[in-house]
Amino acid sequence: MNKQLVLKLIRDQHPISRADIAKTTGLNKATVSALVDELIAEHFVHESGIGESTGGRRPLMLRFNADAGSLVGVELGVNYLYAVLTNLNADILWEQRRSFRPSEGQEAIIGEMMELIEAAIRRAPATPYGVMGIGIGVPGVVHTESGTVIFAPNLRWDDVALAAVLRQRWPERPVIVENEAKLAALGEKWFGAGNEFAHFVYISAGIGIGAGVVLHHQLYRGVSGLAGEIGHHTIDVNGIRCSCGNIGCWEMYASEKYIERRLAEEGRSEWLDDRFSIAAMALAAESDEQLARILEETGRYLGVGLLQVIYAYNPEAVIIGGPLAQAGEYVIGPARQEVRKRILVKKESEPSIIASKLKEKSCAIGAAASVLEAVVLPPEFAAV
Description:
Layout: H1 2-13, E1 16-17, H2 18-25, H3 29-41, E2 45-50, E3 60-64, E4 70-76, E5 80-86, E6 92-99, H4 106-122, E7 131-138, E8 141-143, E9 148-152, E10 157-160, H5 162-169, E11 175-179, H6 180-191, E12 200-205, E13 209-215, E14 218-220, H7 256-265, H8 278-285, H9 289-313, E15 317-321, H10 329-342, E16 352-355, H11 362-375
Parallel strand pairs: 4-7, 7-11, 12-15, 15-16
Antiparallel strand pairs: 1-3, 2-3, 4-5, 5-6, 8-9, 9-10, 12-13, 13-14
Helix pairs in contact: 1-3, 2-3, 6-11, 7-9, 8-9, 9-10
Pfam families: ROK (PF00480)
Organism: Geobacillus stearothermophilus (Bacillus stearothermophilus)
Function: Transcriptional repressor of xylose-utilizing enzymes.
């Protein structure tokens, strides 16, 4: 445990000296030196030169070795696959995106995913530990321990033992399968907009809506992994039927589904072909009041649903990610205003509502970060 504590401190505060590690952790200097020597021998830490003197001999400075190994992260979207190969600091060494149609079927989609993973592994540089594991984010409810996709309504998947299939192909590597919004929250916690917050909620808003909840620096999953499935709470009891079977779910009003429905109603079919993107729509909205109004409506519905999230978790921040975040203030601004207008207690209980820093890469980088947590830096050391 002390070694993990020292490694986490070096990663977060490098360059740092042995003396400063001892001062921060309360460990004695002999223990710190022994632990640092182990970490250097294990290639996770290296000495990086001489630091400034504070009165005695100038200290040797220590750095985290991000090139000790590589990580593979994959996002399985509703109609695309996005894979990255990163070092241990989530610097992307290789990436590739592929589109597919959900009608292609489960086996074909998993086959394409395996091809992408294999391509990433082939491109991994020579490092002491090689590819240290594979993380996969999926848009649905996941049993984390087994890596089984319990229910993914937008993919029409039920009880798919995804991790077991991948472990058969790569038995020597850890395989982690988790909900995509949870992994995006993990990515933001380690490397993005969530880095400065102990308590935040990441909202993934695209074709559907999901959330990743971080409390006390750690990802919260709930008893059975359902924590964060907020896209399916009802905001209109007389509303539209959702793909999950319920009526008036939030994701029917604050997602791409709502935007596409409103575009069709307004006769703007030119925005409904394969080239449709929220980013392009936001750009056009600068001179198109109709498009701006549709985005504003979506943002207001987003804000209505965010109130439930804020009341449930009372976070320091809500981070908006996924395709809707590409609209920037056209969506996030009205959401923020709606929260401010409706929230019970003003000011003190209002969290920061901000855009994702990692943007469309949040989930894939979070998938890589899940491997980092599993094999290098366990999450219980995240709050040092």
